[in-house]
Design brief:
- The chain is an alpha/beta fold.
- The chain folds into 2 domains: 128 residues, Orthogonal Bundle (MetI-like fold); 243 residues, Rossmann fold (3-Layer(aba) Sandwich), CATH 3.40.50.
- It is 57% helix and 6% strand.
- It is built from 17 helices and 5 strands.
- It has a 5-stranded mixed beta sheet, sandwiched between helices.
- Helix 1 runs parallel beside helix 4.
- The longest helix has 36 residues.
- The protein is globular, with a radius of gyration of 23 Å.
- The two termini are 37 Å apart.
- The C terminus is likely disordered.
C-alpha cells in the first residue's frame, strides 16, 4: 500500500519499478508456492509469504489509483490556505482524499487473503484449506463448448452475496463502485488471466454493470460477459463450490438461469473426499457435507421446471459420457460437439490436472475420474 502511494506521488519512483510490476503482476500467487517451500520450507512462514503476495498487488494498485484520483483543485485550495509543504498537503488533503479508495483496497485484499489462505494450506500447513473441496469437471467440460465460456471459480456468491448490506446503499455511486472494485480485483486467478489494465478494467466493469443493473448481479454479469467476449463466445457459465447453498439467491439475481447438477453416490463421494488434500478428516464429516449438499439441491429442484434444472448422475456419466453430454447440450439449447469430450487437452485442464485433487481433469472421462460440482449457465 505504501509503495502504491509513493508511486502515485513521485514519477521517479514509478519509473524505477514499473517494469518490475509488469513482470511480477501477471504471476498468480499460487505459482510462488514452490519458491516459498524452497525459501522457507513447509512452515507457517511459507504460507504467510504466499498470502502476502496474494494481497500485495490489490493494495498496491488501489492505493496508487486512489492517490492519483485526488482532485487537483483541492490541492490548489489547500495551498491557497497556507498548506504549502509536501507533508502538510499529504496530511491534510492527499491521504484523507485517497482514504476511501485505500480502505476499499484493504477490504478487497482481506477477501483475497482468505482465498489465498486456502491455497497456502494445501501444501501441508494445517487449517481451513484442508476442509474445502473444489470440483471442476463441469467447468472444464462446458468451457470447451464453442458457445459457452466458463472461467475459473469466482467465489462471488459465498464471498459477496450474503454481505451486500456492509456496502450500504448500492444505489449510491461510490458504494457501488467499491463493490465493483472488490469483485473485479478479488478473483483468485487475477482477471482470469486476461491481459487488462487494472484501473481501466474496474471502470469498464462498473460502467457495464450500471447498464445491466446497478447491483451485485450487474457486476457479476458484467464480469462474466467480459470473459465471454474475451473467449469469443456468446454465453457464459459459472461454477463455484458451495453455489449449491445459494440457489435461491442465484435464481433471484438471474431468473433465466439454467442449473446443471451432477451428483454421486454418497459412499463413493465421501470416501474420495477423505482422500482429498483439503477434505474432512473423518467419515462422519464427509458424509454430512455430502448430505447437506444433497438436501439443498433436493429442496430447490422440486420447484424447478425441466427446462431450468438438469441432473447428471456421475456413475452414468462416466459409463456413457457422449450420451449424457448430448442430452446436456439439448437441455442448454446448444449443439453437441466432440470438443466437450476433449476437455482434458485444454491448457486449464492440464494446469489444474497437475494437482493431486484435480488430476482427473488432465485425463479423459473414465470410471476413475472425479467430476462433481454444481454450476449455473446464463
Amino acid at each position: 500500500m505504501t509503495l502504491g502511494v509513493l508511486v502515485a506521488l513521485f514519477p521517479a519512483v514509478e519509473a524505477s519499478q514499473v517494469w518490475l510490476a509488469r513482470v511480477l503482476r501477471p504471476i498468480p500467487p499460487l505459482a510462488w508456492i514452490p519458491f516459498a517451500i524452497i525459501w522457507f520450507g513447509i512452515t507457517e512462514t511459507a504460507a504467510a509469504c504466499i498470502i502476502s503476495i496474494g494481497i500485495f498487488w490489490i493494495n498496491y494498485f488501489t492505493a496508487m489509483a486512489a492517490v492519483q484520483a485526488v482532485d487537483k483543485d483541492l490541492i490548489e485550495v489547500a495551498r491557497a490556505f497556507g498548506h504549502r509543504t509536501f507533508a502538510a498537503l499529504l496530511k491534510k488533503v492527499i491521504l484523507p482524499g485517497a482514504a476511501p479508495g485505500i480502505l476499499s483496497g484493504l477490504r478487497a485484499g482481506l477477501g483475497q487473503g482468505w482465498m489465498t489462505v486456502v491455497a497456502a494450506e494445501l501444501f501441508g500447513i494445517e487449517g481451513i484449506g484442508q476442509r474445502m473441496m473444489e470440483a471442476s469437471g463441469l467447468l472444464a467440460i462446458l468451457g470447451c463448448h464453442p458457445r459457452i465460456a466458463v472461467p475459473e471459480v469466482t467465489w462471488y456468491y459465498p464471498r459477496f452475496r450474503p454481505y451486500l448490506h456492509t456496502y450500504g446503499d448500492i444505489g449510491n455511486r461510490d458504494n457501488f463502485r467499491t463493490l465493483a472494485l472488490e469483485m473485479a480485483h478479488g478473483l483468485r486467478v487475477p482477471y482470469w488471466r486476461m491481459d487488462v489494465d487494472p484501473h481501466a478494467f474496474v471502470d469498464a466493469i462498473a460502467e457495464r454493470a450500471v447498464e445491466i443493473e446497478q447491483s451485485f448481479a450487474g457486476v457479476f454479469a458484467a464480469m462474466l460477459e467480459r470473459y465471454a467476449a474475451h473467449e469469443g463466445k456468446p454465453r457464459w457459465g459459472e461454477k463455484t463450490p458451495y453455489n449449491i447453498f445459494y440457489l435461491d439467491r442465484i435464481l433471484e439475481d438471474f431468473p433465466n438461469t439454467q442449473f446443471v447438477y451432477i451428483y454421486r453416490d454418497g459412499r463413493d463421494a465421501s470416501a474420495e473426499f477423505l482422500e482429498s488434500a483439503f477434505g474432512p478428516t473423518n467419515s462422519y464429516s464427509a458424509a454430512r457435507i455430502w448430505r447437506d449438499g444433497q438436501e439443498a439441491a433436493l429442496a430447490f429442484r422440486q420447484q424447478r421446471s425441466v427446462d431450468q434444472w438438469f441432473d447428471i448422475k456421475y456413475e452414468e456419466l462416466v459409463r456413457e459420457p457422449v450420451d449424457h453430454l448430448r442430452r446436456l447440450c439439448t437441455f442448454l439449447g446448444e449443439e453437441y460437439t466432440d470438443a466437450l469430450i476433449a476437455f482434458h487437452t485444454t491448457p486449464t485442464a492440464k494446469r489444474r490436472g497437475a494437482t493431486k485433487d484435480n488430476w482427473a481433469l488432465a485425463h479423459p472421462i473414465n470410471c476413475e475420474s472425479c467430476l462433481t460440482g454444481n454450476k449455473l449457465v446464463h
